[in-house]
Amino acid sequence: MPDGATIQQMFAEVAPGYDRANRALSFGVDRYWRRRAVRLVDVQPGEVGLDACSGTGDLAFTLERAGARILATDFCAPMLVNANQKRDERGSPPAFLAADTLQLPFADDTFDFATVAFGIRNVADPAAGLRELARVVRPGGRVVVLEFCRPRAPVFRSVYSFYFNRLLPRLGGWISGAKNGAYRYLHDSVMAFPEREQFLALMTAAGLREPRQNVLTGGIAALYRGEVAR
Predict the structure, then answer these.
(1) C-alpha to C-alpha distance for 18 and 207, rounded to whole angstroms
(2) For 53-85, how does the pLDDT look when each residue is reduced to its tens digit (9 = 90+)?
(3) Tell me, what CATH number does 201's domain have?
(4) For the purposes of burial, counting CB atoms within 10 Å of the CB of 166, is it exposed (0-12), middle (13-18) or buried (19 or more)?
């Protein structure tokens, strides 16, 4: 797998067409997944949240509309350029900051909750990233992760494998305009990433109690939630 600097450069190159490619490649289902993530966060009035690995800010904006005050971070500055442009167009208030999820520039217990959508795979050490998220969330607060996973139903798994392995890397490059291997990396990283029960074990090791999962859209994605130990 690529190192952190290579992944950062990869996302910088794909940033201009990132949103367009996401909508097309997921057939728009990514919006539904983010709405499900927001429901799982269960935002309460006045809460302050962190959206880490925020990319172009789609989940941050959705959380703001649910009533939270959001600070969003990402390690790829060109992604945040797009996020800030969207914020200016919408007049929405999320603040975006360039920061590495492994070294977040916040004090302990700063946030009521933290979220990551399709980004924890790109953290060099996902377990350390989860520990860092747990550190900056207050005791009793929530950490919610939305991530790709692999279907288990045999027929659907075969269709998914063909699309994800053969078609998506080529379509992703064409739609986004990226000339690098970003969408081949997407396939490879999802195949290698610890999912479902393995990811719940990482959450437990990071100090998150009662971790649980909701599998979405036949197993293409999963939502995970854990609470920071009191």
Answers:
(1) 33
(2) 999 899 999 999 999 999 999 998 888 988 888
(3) 3.40.50.150
(4) exposed
